[in-house]
Design goal:
Distance between the termini: 84 Å
Helix content: 40-55%
Radius of gyration: 22 Å
Largest sheet: 8 strands, mixed
Structural class: alpha/beta
Strand content: 5-15%
Strand order of the largest sheet: 1-2-4-3-5-6-7-8
Shape: globular
Length: 328
């Protein structure tokens, strides 16, 4: 009788399990199709190079002293164009903006740990190949960690840093645990091909408001930022991996800030609801006596959209400050 009951339960549960599996398969297929359609709708319009077997996509515009732009987590090089920063800088500078590994149209091979140092090493090789010498390196949010790694691991290469809305000191954050799931092998793959893209579409407006608050969401961001590219499963994996690495990467730099020997401009909005400006940007400024702190009144995390002219002006001032004495 017991065996019969078990068989009966298995028979009843079987169709349910198959139904769930079929639903997951359909959702995964839909997300894959949407990702391919998105890439066709937003084809890469700039350039590629292969470095150490990794295909890197980048923007290269303008002439003059070089500026390298490194985007934040969840974004891509196009972010700098949409915000207007590339146009403002390209009038007087050669501007290079990379899709960091796994973002936009750049590869992120499995099997390695793409922490800030690993990303910086790859980008440095790309910059050398492009004959970029003595650039000002600009990072936004997670990109500030890559900017720091570039400057610290390649002494006398850059002539200045501009760090926007950055995260420099490890702190316990609930969002790190919540948002790291898609980076986990197998389980994370299941998440990013099923539930996570759907949640991203549903929550996009509220996430955008938090990124910009207390300022309103930029109209440029609303209409021109390629949200669909950011929500592809491939980019979600990169975003989750960067999130999981954020705290240990920041911790790895704690004893190295004093090694910076170039002008450093630190910019942050005093209303930032993503990163605590007092515990991050202001603390770094206090630790670096020769740094320059630019606090933007009423601005949130996305200061390159909220005040692109101010950001471009600070970048240009750092380029001029180093003058002709920049390292080669």
């Amino acid at each position: 009788m017991a065996r019969s009951d078990r068989n009966g339960k298995n028979a009843r549960h079987g169709p349910g399990v198959l139904s769930i599996a079929a639903t997951i398969g359909v959702v995964a297929l839909i997300n894959r199709v949407v990702a391919h359609q998105t890439e066709r709708a937003h084809p890469p319009t700039t350039q590629f190079m292969t470095v150490d077997g990794v295909n890197l996509h980048y923007i290269d515009r303008g002439k003059g002293s070089p500026v390298v732009l490194l985007h934040g987590n969840g974004a891509l090089a196009r972010d700098w164009e949409v915000s207007g920063v590339v146009d403002l800088l390209a009038a007087n500078h050669r501007v290079i903006a990379f899709d960091r590994p796994g973002f936009g149209y750049s590869d992120r091979p499995r099997g390695g740990i793409w922490d800030a140092a690993g990303q910086a090493a790859l980008i440095h090789k790309a910059l050398v190949r492009l004959d970029i010498r003595s650039p000002v390196i600009v990072g936004h949010s997670w990109g500030t960690l890559v900017a720091l790694a570039l400057a610290l691991d390649n002494k006398r290469y850059s002539k200045g840093l501009v760090l926007l809305s950055g995260y420099y000191y490890p702190r316990l954050r609930a969002d790190v645990t919540l948002l790291s799931g898609p980076a986990i092998p197998i389980f994370g793959d299941l998440l990013r091909y099923t539930i996570v893209p759907l949640l991203g579409w549903v929550l996009w407006d509220s996430i955008s408001r938090k990124l910009f608050a207390p300022a309103p969401v930029s109209q440029r961001f609303r209409t021109d930022f390629p949200m669909a590219l950011a929500l592809r499963p491939s980019q979600l994996r990169a975003s989750a991996a960067d999130t999981a690495l954020m705290v240990p990467v920041a911790a790895s730099f704690l004893d190295r800030h004093e090694e910076l020997d170039v002008p450093v401009a630190i910019m942050a909005g005093n209303g930032d609801r993503i990163v605590d400006i007092a515990r991050q940007s202001k603390r770094l400024h206090a630790e670096l006596p020769k740094s320059f702190m630019h606090e933007l009144e009423g601005a949130g995390h996305m200061i390159h959209y909220i005040a692109p002219e101010a950001v471009a002006a600070v970048i240009t001032s750092i380029a001029h400050r180093a003058g002709t004495n920049a390292p080669e």
